[in-house]
Amino acid sequence: MNKTMTLRSTLRLSALTLAASAALLTGVARAGEVEVLHWWTSGGEAKAAQALAATMKAKGHTWKDFAVAGGGGDSAMTVLKSRVVSGNPPAAAQIKGPSIQEWAREGVLTNLDDVAGPEHWDQLLPPQIAAGLKYKGHYVAAPVNVHRVNWLWVNTAVFKKAGIKPPTSWAEFFTAAEALKKAGVIPLAHGGQSWQDFTTFEDVALGVGGAAFYKKALVQLDPTALKSDTMKEVLTTFKKIKGYTDKNAPGRDWNLATAMVIRGEAGMQLMGDWAKGEFLAAGKTPGKDFECVASPGSAKDFSYNVDSLAMFQLKNAANAKAQRDLASALMSPDFQELFNLNKGSIPVRLNMNMDKFDACAKQSSKDFVESSKGGTLVPSIAHGMAVPSAVEGAMKDVVSQFWNSDKATVEDTMTKLVAAAKAQ
Amino acid sequence: MSTVSPLRRIDWLPKLVLAPSFVAAFLFIYGLIAWNGYLSVSESRLLPNYEFAGLDAYRALFDSDRFHVAAWNLVIFAFLFIAGSLAVGVLLAVLLNQKIRAEGVLRTVYLYPMALSFIVTGTAWKWILNPGLGLEHTVRGWGFASFSFDWLINPDRALYCIVIAGIWQSAGFVMALFLAGLRGIDESIIKAAQVDGASMPRIYLRILLPSLRPVFFSTVMVLSHIAIKSFDLVMALTAGGPGYATDLPATFMYSMAFTRGQINQGAASATLMLAAVAAIVVPYLYSELRSRR
């Protein structure tokens, strides 16, 4: 606590000094202050956040960093709630998916149409993602990136040794897993935390059922889809995967699982593209040391996790002006490129030049654009993009219980999924 | 003799000094309890919302499979944790009471875990009990290839791992309380019993331990509230997993109120936890206060 406090005050101090010198040099009057609540605190993420701070300072505003550690953002949300309730919200906070609508319903978010309209956000963003950033037709949040969730990470050397190719269907996945088992490596690196179980479940649902089934079951929460033969197959396949993970998985963090693939202890991992950061940090090259392929059966689909900053209503006019500049900066091509090069994700703007990005990001960007045209772009349920947090949590519980308990049956689990879909 | 004594003149001073702390305690303990109680019957989801909703949150709670698991886990955990800590603690106290050498060192060794935070205990035991890192791995390394101790990752057994870590941490504290109690007993009672020809175990079972009833009660009191509010130990050791197999009401409350956007259900489960604590504390306070009078 103390460390973050001093860190924050040091940051604030340096921000103030910088802003003061900038103001002296350029003579900017009426500069505002933007306070941004985020949890980009790990390596690449922190760099990306610094890029944003630098952009804002270049515009003459004061950047007030409000970073709360904790990857999932639980503690950040708690802090945010107390700030909002006490009538002192930050300018922007990292909120995504249906939570944006939940916050907007509380009447605390501001209307960004005066920025989004002139800058043509509607044309720059895929309609589905734009809809997620709006409340009652008005923009209330600005997007920063897109993560693809349905990736399978493969250790090339291990696969070569076992004499197999990256699988493109679940049938091939199990053949490959058998071969890896024979070769003496753990077939699939997994971290047994409920969100990771849920991510795997989502990949299976997309690969087995396809985008249409996925949308019906996990976005619209249609009871007949949640209790169908397809869902039965999804659950059976999902459970079968567990046999190819090691027994030390429970509680393991995702980056430790990625490390197993990097070291060649395991052959594959099902994880979003933030895993790429771990590979790159370990000095590995995509296409040579490791490969990124779409999770089995989902080559044409793209399940997205879009990070965005929701903007709060501010009383101070100068700060509100700074907030507008922040929203505009977030969507600018320069920032989108800089931020995503650092974070490992891809720009949310369509038609971006991807020259500086690596092979995985290029593939991801191509699939993003194509799936958005083909209607196979789906929101990730495991990462808070598809359904309200209460429903997401309840379904995550059911899936995780099914994964972990040997007594849970497929029939029972489907009934529980239908019940969980009604949690409101 | 009309002068008022100087002592009488500042009669109001203690009241004034105590007033701020009384107001603070009243507001921040009882006020917040009342606030939490109201939230549990309100429409609150993401943020506190004061629209009245009746007992919906409690109904949802009793329908929730996860809450049933959490409540039942608490019953098992509290019973085993209290019984285990008492058994180990009393045994250690009796053994240490035998006028042995280096008692001070041993006492410190046993009491030391109490100085650790539950987070540390949980993290350490997470490594010890992890089959790939700790106990199982080590014993197999010694050549017992079939040795297996994978409770931590078994949904039906993981709760007992929490019990083990909890007992390890709290037994020393129980030992200290009982040792102090045993030392407070008059030597002459033991001498008298010995003159009557009673054996040492018999003296302990029939005379010394029964005379420590008050110590026993206060220990149970302290341990049971630790059990009910257990949060950090579970978070560090299993984070409620595998699945939600080791969820306790406190961890359930946290996830409902702070990550699921269901503040009303979180508040409802907090109210039930308060009721559980009250069910233990109130009769105790009642008996204590009545006997003092």
UniProtKB/TrEMBL annotation, chain A:
Position of the signal peptide: 1-31
Alphabetical list of InterPro entries matching this protein: Bact_solute-bd_prot1 (IPR050490), SBP (IPR006059)
A single cellular component GO annotation: periplasmic space
Presence of keyword Zinc: no
Keywords: Signal, Transport
Location, primary (coarse class): periplasm
Subcellular location per the Swiss-Prot or TrEMBL entry: Periplasm
Protein family membership: Belongs to the bacterial solute-binding protein 1 family.
Protein task: Part of a binding-protein-dependent transport system for a sugar.
PANTHER family: ARABINOSE-BINDING PROTEIN-RELATED, BINDING PROTEIN COMPONENT OF ABC SUGAR TRANSPORTER-RELATED
Protein name per its UniProtKB record: Probable sugar-binding periplasmic protein
Automatic annotation (TrEMBL), chain B:
Location relative to the cell: Cell membrane
Record's GO cellular component terms: plasma membrane
GO annotation, biological process: transmembrane transport
Superkingdom of origin organism: Bacteria
Residues spanning the membrane: 12-35, 71-97, 109-128, 157-182, 203-228, 266-286
UniProt xrefs under CDD domains: TM_PBP2 (cd06261)
Signal peptide: none
Annotated InterPro entries: ABC_transporter_permease, MetI-like, MetI-like_sf
Domain annotation ABC transmembrane type-1: ranges: 71-286
Membrane topology field: Multi-pass membrane protein
Alphabetic keyword roster: Cell membrane, Membrane, Transmembrane, Transmembrane helix, Transport
Protein family membership: Belongs to the binding-protein-dependent transport system permease family.
The protein, known as: Sugar ABC transporter permease
Lineage: Bacteria, Pseudomonadati, Pseudomonadota, Betaproteobacteria, Burkholderiales
